[in-house]
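Annex B. Sample input.
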Amino acid sequence: MMRQILVVAAHPDDEVLGCGGTIAKLVDEGASVHVAFLADGVLSREGDESEQSKAIDARRLAARQCCDILGVESITFGDFPDNMMDSVPLLNIVKKVEELVEKYNPDTVFTHHGGDLNIDHQRVHEAVVTASRPQKDLPIKTLLFFEVPSSTEWQLPGRAPLFAPNWFFDISNTVERKIRAFEVYAEELRDWPHPRSIKGVEYLARWRGATVGFEAAEAFSLGRELR
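Annex B, continued. Sample output.
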């Protein structure tokens, strides 16, 4: 039976930054991967309505191109307000995630770490954890939290749980595809030494790999695994 994987991300580009190499690896192994973006990722930025509409279209086009490179089977775009998901009742976000779980019946879900600095990442994490609570007939067996450069590592000690990875995927054979997919988000790229630069993303993958004996890896915090 084909594995069904669901990636729930706040914004387009979080998916490739957090688990792009792992997505490609799982697809290569025969899994079916579905990616859902809950916020538009654009509307908190300056510009009139026309400019913002064009920006959303461009961001979604980049997301489709990125996910095509990674081998994603389907993409869902939500319209929760960018960088203002704390203004939305958590229940509304939970219901959206529950709809995704019912639609795709995933055995594994990847999403944000709860200690991220970005408020949308925090809210998505809370919603996924709530929607994934272990109940009879729930398909989710593994819940994993990824790191997003320029959010996860920027949180201050004591303000939230720090990211402490205990689950790693070897992406030695897919790290180049991850980088190529990330390059599609041209508007989101930053110059080195920013953590969301090409070098920053690759160096993180190389460092995570080096800590566990791989050429490259993506690191996760295990939320729950049912056997």
